[in-house]
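Annex B. Sample input.
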Amino acid sequence: MNSPRVLIADDEPELRQLFAEALGESGIPVRTAVSGGQALEILKKNPGIEVLLSDIRMPGMDGYTLASESLTVRPELKILLMTGFELRTPPELLIAREIKTLHKPISVGRLCELISGMLERP
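Annex B, continued. Sample output.
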């Protein structure tokens, strides 16, 4: 099995599985996490992960906190945050890093295009 290049953190099992399967079918190796805390641990153990795709609104550690914490561990990480709710102003670090945000629902085709584009960029 190839080393994961994308980590998906979402507390909604159906969405997490849908996105993981779509990216996997596109040839992109994926790991998944059910929470921000689990995602952070996976990032620490998998240096090949290049993109974090995270829901913003999760119990415990939200997506903004996960993104900030992830960047302290992996400053080169590319991050894509998504939400089905109204976006609040992100922390300064995320504004400076130009973290991308998406509104759910998003088509799996569009998501695969975005992630592929992020993986192609240095």
